[in-house]
């Protein structure tokens, strides 16, 4: 008993403090970036219903692209963490430069897709012509910002790998601060200037046209490039990065460095893309259940997504800590760091479940006053309380494995668990039920499928982490 207490004091408690210190700024940055999407929806909704629909439909196309880019570039974090832990500072700069080349290529490719592919997609989806026109304009503006957000995410992954997670928080807040006034100006035109500056706004400026959804896209692109430029300036002048001399000399593209990032990062991007499409497909499947069901599902999903930011941030911090320790060749310590993070994820899950259970009625009432939607949302959240443990476990187990640069198996497990068990099982329960045992379970069946999928992922990832940590 005395030895265990000594380990807590000498190993686990300091490691827990370090992990939480890294994770909290990441969580703040995630919330700030999510806040930009919330602001876009709120402000276009106040303009008119067509612009709101255009931004909502457009976001469903560019957000998965951005998340795939983000996931791919997250592969840089364990690479930098390993190099930093091994004191190989000279190798960090070329690794980051290869990530910047990849980011630029992904950003340009995403921009081209948003320019040329959206109209055929809208035609196939039978999107109303007025909404399709505004949404295409919105996406054409957002496309200019995709290279910027890709470069920001690459530099953020570098900074996180250097154990410096606070810059992403402050710069994400800067992006949000730029986004709001730009939205006022570009969505509402002269009216927006009057809202911002009152009588101080020049009369000539008050004649500016209201651009609606297109203006929202321009504001989003401006925010993306603002974040990229701010991050570049910070990494150039920040004391933390002086040992790397990141901007001293640009390394040309090198196949070996790009291959390493792609091998580690693309499976992360695919795993995140699979998770996003899981919830997108569920939303499409339950659309036929009626407005009350759709509304209740979206409310429950929105609230649980906000709470998920903390375990997800903990996962990103755990990647850094495991990578740092492995870079130092402290293999036993790396295993202890990984499993200590998993224990912390269980505690976070307990906190989230408690918050959901006690605050659900009040939070749901903030979303809607419809009694039917409130009642259904409350039953869905009661299921969400159950999967907080498996959700927190699976994302942090995946984070620890990324610290080991073990991403391909994580991708395979994620695809199988999410699409086959989660989506397939949920669709079966929701549409057909359990045969003679029960009738179709509707939206509750889909959420039961989520519980099964996340639990399957957690079990398989735990097996993988146990195996690879022992091999190392």
TrEMBL record:
InterPro entries: MATE_fam, MATE_MdtK, MdtK-like. Keywords: Antiport, Cell membrane, Ion transport, Membrane, Transmembrane, Transmembrane helix, Transport. Pfam families: MatE (PF01554). The chain crosses the membrane at residues 61-84, 96-116, 136-155, 167-188, 208-234, 261-287, 299-320, 341-364, 376-397, 409-429, 441-463. Its main location: membrane. It is a multi-pass membrane protein. It is found in: Cell inner membrane. The keyword Transmembrane helix applies. This is Multidrug-efflux transporter. It comes from Vreelandella piezotolerans.
């Amino acid at each position: 008993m005395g030895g265990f207490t000594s380990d807590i004091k000498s190993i686990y408690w300091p490691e827990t403090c370090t992990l939480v210190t890294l994770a909290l700024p990441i969580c703040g940055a995630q919330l700030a970036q999510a806040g930009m999407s919330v602001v876009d929806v709120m402000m276009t909704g106040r303009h008119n219903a067509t612009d709101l629909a255009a931004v909502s439909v457009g976001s469903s196309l560019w957000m998965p692209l951005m998340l795939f880019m983000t996931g791919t570039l997250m592969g840089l974090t364990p690479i930098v963490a390993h190099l930093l832990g091994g004191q190989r500072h000279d190798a960090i700069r070329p690794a980051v430069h290869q990530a910047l080349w990849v980011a630029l290529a992904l950003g340009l490719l995403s921009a081209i897709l948003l320019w040329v592919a959206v109209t055929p997609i809208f035609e196939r989806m039978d999107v109303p012509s007025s909404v399709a026109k505004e949404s295409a304009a919105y996406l054409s503006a957002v496309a200019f910002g995709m290279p910027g957000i890709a470069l920001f995410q690459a530099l953020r992954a570098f900074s996180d790998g250097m154990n410096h997670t606070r810059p992403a928080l402050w710069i994400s807040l800067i992006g949000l601060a730029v986004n709001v006034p730009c939205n006022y100006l570009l969505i509402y035109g002269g009216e927006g200037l009057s809202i911002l500056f009152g009588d101080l706004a020049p009369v000539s400026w008050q004649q500016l046209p209201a651009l609606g959804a297109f203006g929202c896209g321009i504001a989003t692109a401006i925010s993306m490039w603002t974040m990229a430029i701010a991050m570049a300036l910070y990494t150039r002048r920040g004391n933390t990065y002086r040992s790397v001399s990141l901007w001293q000399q640009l390394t040309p593209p090198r196949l070996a460095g790009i291959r390493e990032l792609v091998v580690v990062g693309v499976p992360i991007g695919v795993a995140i893309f699979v998770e996003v499409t899981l919830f997108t497909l569920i939303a499409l499947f339950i659309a036929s259940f009626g407005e009350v069901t759709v509304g209740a599902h979206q409310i429950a999903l929105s609230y649980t997504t906000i709470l998920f930011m903390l375990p997800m941030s903990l996962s990103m911090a755990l990647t850094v800590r495991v990578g740092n320790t492995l870079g130092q060749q402290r293999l036993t310590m790396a295993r202890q760091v990984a499993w200590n993070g998993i224990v912390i994820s269980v505690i976070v899950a307990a906190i989230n479940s408690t918050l959901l259970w006690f605050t659900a009625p009040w939070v749901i009432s903030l979303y809607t006053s419809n009694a039917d939607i409130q009642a259904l949302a409350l039953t869905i959240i009661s299921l969400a309380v159950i999967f907080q443990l498996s959700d927190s476990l699976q994302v942090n187990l995946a984070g620890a494995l990324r610290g080991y640069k073990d991403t391909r198996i994580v991708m395979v497990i994620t695809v199988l668990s999410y699409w086959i068990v989660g989506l397939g099982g949920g669709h079966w329960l929701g549409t057909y039920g359990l045969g003679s045992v029960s009738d179709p379970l509707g939206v509750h069946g889909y959420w039961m499928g989520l519980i099964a999928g996340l639990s399957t992922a957690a079990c398989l990832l735990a097996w993988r982490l146990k195996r690879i940590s022992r091999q190392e």
